Amino acid sequence: MASPRGLRTRLVSIVSSAGVAGVVAASVVVLPAGSAGATPASDVQQQIAAAQHQLDALNAHAEMVAERYNAARIDLAAAQQRYLTASDRVKRAKDQVAALRDRIGSFAAAAYRSHGLAELEVITDSSPQTFIGRANALDQIARSQQQALAQVSSARHQLEDAQADADRALGAQKAVTEKIASDRQEIQSTVGRQRALLSTLQAKEAEIERQARLAAERARKAAERQAALREAAAAAARAAAAAQQAQAFEDASNSLAGQSDTPSSPAPGGSGGASTAVRWAYKELGKPYQWGAAGPDSFDCSGLTQYVWGKAGVYLDHYTGSQWNEGRHVSRSQLQPGDLVFFGSDLHHVGIYIGNGDMIEAPHTGANVRISPYYRSDYAGAVRPGT
Prior knowledge:
Helix 1 runs antiparallel to helix 2 and helix 1 (4-27) crosses helix 4. The protein has 7 helices and 6 strands. It has helices at 4-27, 40-115, 117-122, 128-257, 272-283, 301-311, 320-323, and strands at residues 328-330, 340-343, 349-355, 358-361, 370-373, 379-384. A hairpin with an 8-residue loop joins strand 4 (358-361) and strand 5 (370-373). It is α+β, with helices and mostly antiparallel strands.
């Protein structure tokens, strides 16, 4: 396994070989131009994808350079420590040389005074052997001191060389660290610009989406207005037609009322109240459906039939299940205006038959009382109230 120092050296060499310019250039992705037929939103999305890709690459390179900077700082701290250690050793060596010089000087002076030439000059009765022995001792001491001084001086020069090497290594490491810091700052600046570009593109995308939503909302409201206008026109047409039918029915009823009441010419609906119920049903056309309402301004299905038959003097419960049993059941072939027509196996809906295959009904929430074909697949039967 490689040592941390080896890993740092390899990381530094890998990134240094490319340089920050190569790192940034390798990360640059040219934003794609809008393709023919592309919408503004899709074009911006492509630019966002490209900018995000570029930012991811820059972040990866920034992380690599950051780690290289961390490694360089560790190496710089080690170089500084080696420099300080070398400086301390050189100082101690210089101090030793200075101290040794002082000791040699002091020793030479003492030797001269105690055993030196001055003493040899005054001692005339000494034997030649004594004189030679003392002279040899002084010479040997001098040579030993000079040899020690030379060794210490040599050691000092070696340490000064080591100090110079440490100084050069420290300077080189400082230069490398400063270069890496500069590279790191350049990449971080590039990352910042890329992030700003990405934010701008994302804001542009959000604005395009907002404008699209507003346009869609305007289109929806315009469509609703058109639909409302068409519905209003259709409702007016239905109301006009219903008014014409009501008038025709009333004219027919008045005409029949003036004739003799013979079996060959029965009253409309088979009972005197049916024509009144139908006439009132026409008057309620266009009023809104409301659950549980029984007039005079809104109705549900059984509320409408209860209301119009009440105008004819026939009371019905406000419930389809009850109205099913509040009159005589008639077959489809026997249907007459005024009959109640029911729908669903649970009798959940009722209308009042007005002839020509139509009925008037209060259909459901959101709709108004209207004329509709009575023939439906869920037709359940008919009841003639008041009989």
